[in-house]
Amino acid sequence: MKCKYCKKIFEDDADVVLNYFNHVDTNHYDSLTDNEKIMHDARKKMIKSKTDYEVHKKTTGDSDLIFNSKNSDI
Length: 74
Known about the structure:
Elements: H1 16-27, H2 34-60, H3 63-70
């Protein structure tokens, strides 16, 4: 994948989209149009929310399992 704002080329791996997103955020955010900035900010919030959820789930466990274990007769 090639950056549309510069000549950087990203390797095709599992994190190519996230790497590209972070590259644009760090290096080219000011070059984005107003609509692109709105979409970029929305994606950034979604990525942060997903990351926060995954961290919370690892530290506290799955909410269904916690609920079920508290209310189980076993």
